[in-house]
Specification:
The protein is built from 16 helices and 19 strands. The protein is an alpha/beta fold and 438 residues long. The two termini are 33 Å apart.
């Protein structure tokens, strides 16, 4: 179902009848296409976008939390269960071969999508959180002692803080934190000052989930390597917005979640350089990751299988492969440009509302717009928007340190994807005008 956005806006204009709302005249940008593909055509691929919320068309601005799934992914998972379902690698029968082929093909698609040298560099995990824990436990923890230091940044999601705190507590290591400037961008000169002979590892987000800041990861990787330190890049918020090439970036590890890039929940990937994966030891044991087991000793399979204990999330890995195919066909460069235009438009329109304060104003951002509204809690804003079918995230976004750095405990966080439109932004802005004028 294609939503008639002009009709939606007309209806809302009559309902949002306050003086301030009536004065709002949206400056609708005259296009809705991504690299020549109509956004209406793209939206038709996503069945959930036809849902109604409070008798309004669903406007999904919570893409930073999770993205919606296209028919191409939903249908591929259904096909897997209808025609390929089996455990992988160990069966001699036809369905085992089909399932293994589909699973390993998805691994290859991940490698191609992020520019890895080989599918052998890719480990399937549940998501970014499990991926960071895997690297922390399997590779970094054995390097640490009471004098060791790990470098993080103020921008990190809790998933890129807590795993390092756990291994630091167990080994006596210390965590150092790189500061940010007034816009929410990492201060590179201060970052480099943190490195010394005790530094054993560094980890950095490529995009802040709370602010949208695109960090200078290329320079940060170079700084770490200049000091002989390995580094992990958290790609959870970058994977669906920015073209990534881990080989060109020279990242030692790169992690991301499938559900952030139109794939199912419960599937993600770790990229690791071959020599580091060979050095790392598995922190989970079981079937699939072993070559030979006696009661006296175990011989592990080579990476990546040695890190994939037990039956993997096979169907959703296949779904991840389908999602990457879908995004690749549209083109991440096209997506990045369109989403940038959505962000610029939303920033411009919201800035006209008295009392709106943006949190995080770095020059380089993805489509995350974090703000607070004078006189209203973030929960009040979120609930009001929900009345008009607009879904945004409110709260601390699992990034309390960076929000507290800016003096707030929570923000309203609309996050945009390539299936969103300028007209949807107008609906959100009108609703906030109505709240301010109420």
């Amino acid at each position: 179902m294609i939503i008639d956005y002009e009709a939606v806006i007309r209806d809302l204009a009559s309902e949002l009848a306050s003086e301030e709302t009536a004065s709002y005249s949206p400056a609708i940008t005259p296009y809705n296409h991504v690299g020549g593909i109509s956004v209406d055509k793209i939206r038709a691929d996503f069945p959930i976008l036809s849902e109604k919320v409070n008798n309004r068309p669903l406007i999904w601005f919570d893409n930073g939390a999770t993205t919606q799934k296209p028919n191409q992914v939903i249908d591929r998972i259904s096909y897997y269960y209808e025609h390929e379902n089996s455990n992988v690698h160990r069966g001699a029968h036809e369905l085992a071969a089909r399932s293994t082929d589909a699973y390993e093909a998805a691994r290859g698609k991940v490698a191609d999508f992020i520019g890895a040298d080989s599918a052998e560099n890719i480990i399937f995990v549940r998501g970014t959180t499990e991926g960071i824990n895997l690297v922390a436990q399997s590779y970094v923890k054995p390097l640490l002692n009471k004098d060791s230091e790990i470098i993080l940044t103020m921008l990190e999601h809790h998933a890129n803080i807590v795993p390092w705190q756990i291994i630091a507590a167990e080994t006596g290591a210390k965590i150092k934190v790189a500061p940010v400037d007034g816009t929410g961008q990492i201060i590179l000169s201060e970052y480099e000052k943190l490195f010394n002979h005790n530094t054993k590892f560094a980890a950095v987000t490529q995009v802040s989930n709370a602010l949208g800041t695109i960090t200078p990861v290329h320079e940060m990787v170079q700084i770490a390597h200049r000091h002989g330190v390995r580094i992990l890049v958290d790609g959870a918020q970058s994977i669906s917005h920015i073209p990534v090439n881990v080989t060109a970036l020279d990242a030692d590890f790169f992690v991301f979640s499938g559900h952030k890039i139109y794939a199912p929940t419960g599937i993600g990937a770790v990229y690791g350089k071959k020599e580091l994966l060979e050095l790392a030891q598995p922190y989970q044991g079981g079937g699939n990751m072993i070559k030979d087991v006696t009661f006296e000793r175990t011989v592990y399979n080579p990476s990546p299988l040695k890190f994939e204990a037990g039956t993997g999330n096979i169907a959703d890995a296949v779904g991840l492969g389908a999602a990457l195919d879908y995004v690749s066909e549209i083109g991440l460069s096209n997506i990045l440009k369109y989403e940038h235009d959505l962000l610029a438009y939303a920033t411009s329109e919201l800035s006209k509302i008295s009392g709106v304060k943006f949190i995080g104003t770095a020059n380089e951002k993805t489509s995350v717009l974090s703000f607070v509204l004078d006189g209203f809690t973030t929960e009040q804003v979120g609930k009001h928007l929900n009345n008009y079918g607009v879904a945004v995230r409110t709260g601390h976004h699992c990034a309390q340190p960076i929000l507290r750095h800016f003096g707030v405990e929570s923000t309203v966080r609309p996050t945009f994807a390539f299936y969103n439109t300028f007209e949807e932004i107008d609906v959100m802005v009108r609703a906030i005008y109505e709240l301010v004028g109420s």
